[in-house]
Structure formats: C-alpha cells, structure tokens
Description:
By secondary structure, the chain is mainly α.
Amino acid sequence: MSLATLLILLALWTQGALTLALLVILGRRRLPLVMEKKIAVRDIALDTGPWPEDAQKASNAFDNQFQLPVLFAIGIAIAIYLGAGWPEAVLAWVFVLSRIVHAAIHVTTNHVYRRFSAYVVGFGVLTALWIAILVRLVLVFQTV
C-alpha cells in the first residue's frame, strides 16, 4: 500500500471518528435531559422541537455527517480502486478538515455564514475529488 493510499484511508477514518465524536456530544447533551425528566420521551418521539438549542445544534451537526461525507466515502473507495495518488490524498484531507471546522462551528457558535463557508470549501473539494475520479476513469478507458 502506498503512503498516499494510507493517508487517504486515514482521512476516511478521521471522518468516521468525527461522526462518532458528534454522536457522543449529542448523547452528552440529550441523555441528561431525558434522565432528569426535563424532556419527556413522548415529546421528542416524533418531533425534535422540544430539544434545547445546544442539543439541536449537536443533532444537526451529526445529521449533516450523512450528506456530503457519504459522497466522500464513496468517492474515496472508487479513487482507491482506480489507484488514487497524492492529489486524492490532499483533497481527502482538505475535505475532512473542512468537515471538522464545519462541525465545530455547528456545535458551538453555529454562526451560519462561517458554517456555510466551511460547507462550501468541503463541497468544492468534494467536487474536485469527483472530477479527479472522472479523469482516472477516462484514463482507464483509454488504456482498455
């Protein structure tokens, strides 16, 4: 396995760890409220409205990890299959760093413009990754 591939896989692992960390944050913000009976289970069974702002921020940040990061994981798998190199490794890490920044903003200040900026960076990098995959696919078909 090349160093670039190893770094790509480490970026993917880091993205997964970020998602799990957000789940822990979410649990730490929600469980005490239910255990202390500050929030009734029946009130949150079908509606997230009753959760306080901090719990809702963590919930939104966690939910957001199942949007762009899903396309990232699929792209990484395809890129590695096609023989990903250093460009994909750099793109992978920039994407994951943008997601860390996005999540950190989401669970703290939730400043929408800053959060959106981090999202746009991640979206741009993800688009570049998918274009790199397309280039690799075209190159593969040219050699067949």
